[in-house]
């Protein structure tokens, strides 16, 4: 990746009060006559920090890793839970089962994957590598053994740990790629990617599930759009949607920008590429196991109020709504929210950036979603750090997320029950606080859109050379 000239970059020690204050302990702010290090470029620093932070995330899971994920209390008390080891056995990867099989005997033995195809493919591929790394031979005998016996075999326990390690290495590579993409979105602001690389939520949430795959594709979409590549943007969005549903919402941001610019070719190109990429990604699963492919859609449609949601708070306080009512109300709210983002984007003095619009849409979706797993914060992370590249605001938001991270595990472990009656008011507080800090960041983004003088990116590049809109349209910023 090409580096802009040293005097052309925005230096966070000059711009950000938090970074400036911290820099006093290591020599102070970047001075007028300072000479940048010849080898430690912003890209290399950011990638190095990303690697260190990701390794810290692996260390955070060490207590569960050391007891091969069998201590049910420790996974909550020490907050080291991960879905990966349990799904390795529970979804048949221990027997090299393709996640989209039409074999009814296999389905009676193992549940189908409840995730989109991108995650299922990745999880299956990681299991193949795990068997190779572990020296696993034939697995035919396992199919004739009760699954609870299989899960406690010494070889399988070894494979389970190896599976988590293999997945972590692969996800670490994806995270480095995400950081690289974010480095290139705003050419004059490579240090904004440090907000992603050094994010506290990345340490604690990176290895709960495989969500970082979708995060990387969202970062890739932001990078591709900044480089005037609508087709590649669409491919990234389509593959991201095949991995997690939420990357689809970026097309809403693209739509707002194209309406503002009165240019329809980028919108059509991005949408068509997204649809084709999604179809191509889903084709193997659909053709080999249609019923298993449908599990993700039916599972999410039929689930009720679940962890982390405002619906759970209401249900546990005597206002339990059925899943059909929750579905209907959630979609009405989300559609209204999207209309609000559209009107905001059209009314803004300057065309908002894709990261800003994408953040608002995804945040609206998460606020009323039926479940909020702690790793969902990663969905917002690449969008948030580019939408609001301020350490103060990022730390306020992530403090709420980390409080929720601790509370959800202690809630599941039964450590937050009030007087042993099964009620957990502190968990309700954590849910509400998380939502409030998320809304805080929403308010900041809305303010920056309506009052561009508060937007650090706009302030540094007032003529419209902003990295998250196509280059060909930057000089045509006409309000609608």
Could you explain the architecture of this structure?
Belongs to the glycosyltransferase 87 family. Keywords: Cell membrane, Membrane, Transferase, Transmembrane, Transmembrane helix. GO terms for molecular function: hexosyltransferase activity. With about 475 residues, the protein is mostly helical. It has two domains: about 1-35, no CATH class; about 35-475, no CATH class. The protein has helices spanning about 10-15, 15-25, 40-60, 60-65, 75, 85-90, 105-110, 115-135, 145-150, 155-185, 195, 200-205, 210-225, 230-240, 250-260, 265-290, 290-300, 310-315, 325-345, 355-365, 375-385, 390-410, 425-450, 455-460. α13 packs parallel to α21 (about 375-385). It is globular, with a radius of gyration of 23 Å. The two termini are about 35 Å apart.
Helix tally equals 24
In the predicted model, the low-confidence regions spanning at least 5 consecutive residues are 1-6, 462-480
Number of structurally distinct domains: 2
Q: What form results from the Cα inertia axes?
A: globular
């Amino acid at each position: 990746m090409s580096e802009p000239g040293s005097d052309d970059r925005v230096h966070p020690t000059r711009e950000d009060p938090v970074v400036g204050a911290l820099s006093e302990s290591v020599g102070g702010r970047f001075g007028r006559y300072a000479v940048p290090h010849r080898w430690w470029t912003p890209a290399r620093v950011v990638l190095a920090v990303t690697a260190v932070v990701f390794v810290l995330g692996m260390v955070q899971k060490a207590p569960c890793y050391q007891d091969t994920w069998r201590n049910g209390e420790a996974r909550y008390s020490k907050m080291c839970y991960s879905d990966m080891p349990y799904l390795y056995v529970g979804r048949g990867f221990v027997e090299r089962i393709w996640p989209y099989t039409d074999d009814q005997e296999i389905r009676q033995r193992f549940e189908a994957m409840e995730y989109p195809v991108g995650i299922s493919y990745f999880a299956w591929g990681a299991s193949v590598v795990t068997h190779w790394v572990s020296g696993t031979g034939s697995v035919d005998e396992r199919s004739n053994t009760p699954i609870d016996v299989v899960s406690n075999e010494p070889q399988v326990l070894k494979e389970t740990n190896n599976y988590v390690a293999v997945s972590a290495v692969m996800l670490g590579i994806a995270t480095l790629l995400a950081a690289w993409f974010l480095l290139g979105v705003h050419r004059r602001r490579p240090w904004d990617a440090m907000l992603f690389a050094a994010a506290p939520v990345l340490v604690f949430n990176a290895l709960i599930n495989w969500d970082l795959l979708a995060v990387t594709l969202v970062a890739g979409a932001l990078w591709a759009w900044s480089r005037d590549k609508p087709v590649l943007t669409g491919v990234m969005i389509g593959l991201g949607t095949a991995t997690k549903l939420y990357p689809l919402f970026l097309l809403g941001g693209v739509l707002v920008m194209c309406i503002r610019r009165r240019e329809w070719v980028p919108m059509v190109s991005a949408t068509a590429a997204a649809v084709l990429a999604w179809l191509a990604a889903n084709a193997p699963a659909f053709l080999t196991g249609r019923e298993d492919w449908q599990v993700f859609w039916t599972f999410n449609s039929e689930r009720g109020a679940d962890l982390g949601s405002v619906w759970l708070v209401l249900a546990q306080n005597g206002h339990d709504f059925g899943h059909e009512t929750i579905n209907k109300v959630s979609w009405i709210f989300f559609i209204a929210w999207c209309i609000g983002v559209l009107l905001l984007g059209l009314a803004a003095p300057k065309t908002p950036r894709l990261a800003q619009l994408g953040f608002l849409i995804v945040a609206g979706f998460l606020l009323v979603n039926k479940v909020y797993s702690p790793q969902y914060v990663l969905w917002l992370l690449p969008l948030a750090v580019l939408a609001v590249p301020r350490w103060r605001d990022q730390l306020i938001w992530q403090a709420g997320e980390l409080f929720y991270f601790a509370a959800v595990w202690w809630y599941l472990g039964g450590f937050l029950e009030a007087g042993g009656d099964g009620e957990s008011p502190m968990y309700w507080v954590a849910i509400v606080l998380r939502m409030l800090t998320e809304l805080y960041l929403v308010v900041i983004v809305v303010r920056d859109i309506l009052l561009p003088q508060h937007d650090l990116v706009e302030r540094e590049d007032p003529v419209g050379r902003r990295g998250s809109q196509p280059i060909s349209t930057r000089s045509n910023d006409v309000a609608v």
